[in-house]
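lol ok so funny story. i was supposed to be doing the assay writeup but got distracted and ended up predicting the structure for this chain instead. priorities right. anyway since i did it might as well share w the group, maybe its usefull for someone
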Amino acid sequence: MSTTSDKPYEPISFAKKHRISVEDARNILDQAAGDKKAADKHARRVSV
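and the output, tada:
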């Protein structure tokens, strides 16, 4: 059984969540390789 938190972030929703560009969101998600916690942490550094 899969929950919503098991699914990877979508770049557009991730970008909106952190108020960053979709391009930045894609780069962060690629670097995080499915690690949501790492992706969120990195996005907080990018967003201003």
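Residues 9-46 form one domain. The chain has three helices and no strands.
back to the writeup now i swear
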